C-alpha cells in the first residue's frame, strides 16, 4: 500500500509539473530553465524520500517530517560536493545563481577594539560599547543554545562545548576578525547570559518533559474541544521520553564517543563562520539562517541515534543514517573551507596559544591513560592481593581449628575461579 501510494503521488506530481511546462511557453533563458529544472528534480526526490525513506527514532509530529529532513540532508550534501569540485572563483560566483547579491567580497566586522564597559570619554552615552554588541546575534545565541541543550540533554556537555568554543575564538581571532571580541563579550554576554541562560531554560524544559505523563489518546476519542486542542499541541512533543545518561567515564568507548561528539559540534560551529567567510555570505543572509535551521532539525535525530547506538549496541547494531549524514556534511564543509582559503587556515597560531593547546591535549591524554589503563590495572592488582590475603587467612583459620582438607580445597578452588573471572 505504501509503495502504491508513493507511485501515485510521484505520478501526480510529475503530471502536474509536465502540465505546467506545457501550458506556459518555455523561456529562452538557459540559466532560468536550469534552475527551474533543478528545483523540480529536488521536489520529486523529496516526495519520493518522504514516503519511502527509512523511519528515524522520532515519530512526532509525524515520521514523514523527519524523513523530509533526512532527504534534505542528502540534497545538501550533494550540493556541498558540487561546490567542493569547483574552482574557488567559480564556486563563489555560483552563489549568484541562488542570490544575485552574493559573490561579492564582504568586510568582516571586528567586535573587539574599545572594551571599556563604561566609557567616560563619551558623555552622551558612556555605555555605547555594550549597546553596540547587542545585535540580532544575542537572541540567536540564546535560542541556539536552548535548542542544543534539547539535543544533547546534558548540562556538563553543553557547558564544555560553550566554554571550548570561546577558547577557540581566542585561538583563531588572528584568522577571522569576527572572532575578536572583548573579554566581557566572551564570558559575560556569551557564556553566562546568552549560552548559560539558554542551557538553563533547556534543562528546565528537559525536566518538564521527563516528568510529563506520556499516555496518548486518539483525537476523536476526546470529548471536549479543550482536550482536542491540548492533544493537537501535544502532538509536537515527544511520543515517549528517553533520558540521556552519557556516562563518559564509565568506559573507554563512551569516553571516546563523547569526545568525538564534542569535536564534531565545535567543528560544525566553526564551519558556520568559515563558510560565510570563504563563500562571501553576510552573517544576516537567509542562507546562513537556513543552515542553522537545518542543523537544528537533523542534529536532534543524529544525537538520538548516537545515544541509542552507545547505550544499547546489541539492539542498535550500527549507527543511524542521519548521524552518518551529519558527520559527512560537517566534514565536507570543512573540506570546502580548506580548499577555498588554505592561506587563512594555515596562519600559524601565536606561540602562547600553541603552548596552551599542547598542555591541554597532554592533560586530556594523561587523564585518559590513568582512568582507563593505569587505574584499572591498579584496582585489579589490589583486588587480587586482597583475595590472596583472605584466602591465606581462611586457610590458617581452618588449620588452627582442625577442619578437614576438603573444605580448604573448596575454598582454594573458589578463589582461583574468582581470580580467573577477574
TrEMBL record:
It is found in: Endoplasmic reticulum membrane. It is an enzyme of class 2 (transferase). Pathway: Lipid metabolism; Phospholipid metabolism; phosphatidylserine biosynthesis. It catalyses: 1-octadecanoyl-2-(5Z,8Z,11Z,14Z)-eicosatetraenoyl-sn-glycero-3-phosphoethanolamine + L-serine = 1-octadecanoyl-2-(5Z,8Z,11Z,14Z)-eicosatetraenoyl-sn-glycero-3-phosphoserine + ethanolamine; 1-hexadecanoyl-2-(4Z,7Z,10Z,13Z,16Z,19Z-docosahexaenoyl)-sn-glycero-3-phosphoethanolamine + L-serine = 1-hexadecanoyl-2-(4Z,7Z,10Z,13Z,16Z,19Z-docosahexaenoyl)-sn-glycero-3-phosphoserine + ethanolamine; 1-(1Z-octadecenyl)-2-(4Z,7Z,10Z,13Z,16Z,19Z-docosahexaenoyl)-sn-glycero-3-phosphoethanolamine + L-serine = 1-(1Z-octadecenyl)-2-(4Z,7Z,10Z,13Z,16Z,19Z-docosahexaenoyl)-sn-glycero-3-phospho-L-serine + ethanolamine; 1-(1Z-octadecenyl)-2-(5Z,8Z,11Z,14Z- eicosatetraenoyl)-sn-glycero-3-phosphoethanolamine + L-serine = 1-(1Z-octadecenyl)-2-(5Z,8Z,11Z,14Z-eicosatetraenoyl)-sn-glycero-3-phospho-L-serine + ethanolamine. It is a multi-pass membrane protein. One of its GO terms (cellular component) is endoplasmic reticulum membrane. InterPro entries: PSS (IPR004277). It comes from the Eukaryota. Keywords: Endoplasmic reticulum, Lipid biosynthesis, Lipid metabolism, Membrane, Phospholipid biosynthesis, Phospholipid metabolism, Transferase, Transmembrane, Transmembrane helix. GO terms for biological process: phosphatidylserine biosynthetic process. Belongs to the phosphatidyl serine synthase family. This is Phosphatidylserine synthase. It comes from Pelecanoides urinatrix. The gene is Ptdss1_1.
